[in-house]
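As a next step, we paired sequence with structure tokens, yielding the entry below.
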Amino acid sequence: MRSSPSIVPTDRLDRDIYLVLEDFGARAGCAWRETDEQDTDRRTIIRDLLSGPYAYPVRIVVFNAIEGYARDATSEIADELAKHFATDPEITPALQAFIEANATRPFALQLALPLRGAA
């Protein structure tokens, strides 16, 4: 039996695609956030979690349609966000709660202490 060529453009799918499940509150509930195709890579998802559109992330999944897998990436993204906040303490309460609930390492925000008499 001959297989016919795929009509799905594989070059766009041959990569890891990250999606974020977000909590929109009691009335709206949780939903997978609509995302442009070019904004589904790991670096962009982390940037957006740090700066913008995701207010209350709940879960993050990664999949690759060509390689045929999907998995939960919530903990690894939470760990990466925790590393970022170790050096930059600007964090929203919702993102702090996300990191505390999902990071595999303990998350501790290190606050700078003023040193009296230090020059």
